[in-house]
Design brief:
189 residues, RNA Polymerase Alpha Subunit, Chain A, domain 2, 2 domains, six-stranded mixed beta barrel, four-stranded mixed β-sheet, 50S ribosomal protein L25/general stress protein Ctc, ribosomal protein, ribonucleoprotein
Amino acid sequence: MDNIRVQKRDTSLKAKQLRRSGFVPGNIFGGTLQESISIQIDEATARKLIRLKREGSKLRLTLDDQVIPVQIKEKEQNTLSEEILHISFQALRADQKVNSVIHILLKNMDKIAGILERIMLEIPYASLPADMIDTITIDLEGIRVGSVITVADIPELRDEKIDLQVDLDSIILRINDKNRATVQSQKES
């Protein structure tokens, strides 16, 4: 799923008509492009893309015979009907830093003894395309109640090739005591 074939959009069709005919409208902007390019993506391919990739994910689009390195900049979806309305891609230049986000994934959430409090779901940063990070997975197995994980605790985020746009002491998550959480919620009632 790192290379997706797209077509130039038929601008004579409205977006609604395009979606009814099995395509999702989109655009590519930035990088070495002189102007934005309106594109269309086969709906099945767009659904697979939405399922497997996130905003900030890096991939390549093949448009005609041109391969364009991009990141997913924005996905617009109707949450009720799950219809994909539009996908925007930012073209990447190897020598130009780009703003993006790292998504925080959690593993072994069922093995923590306390209450998980997620504070940051994604971390904004800037880097050259070669240094981009899509996701970071934090393994929660063995994490004790009272633990706090900050941005500084993640080794990948201490790389000088990445310009973080949050403080290193920003809290990503903490594990609270179940009893304290129950007492706190009773006080608030």
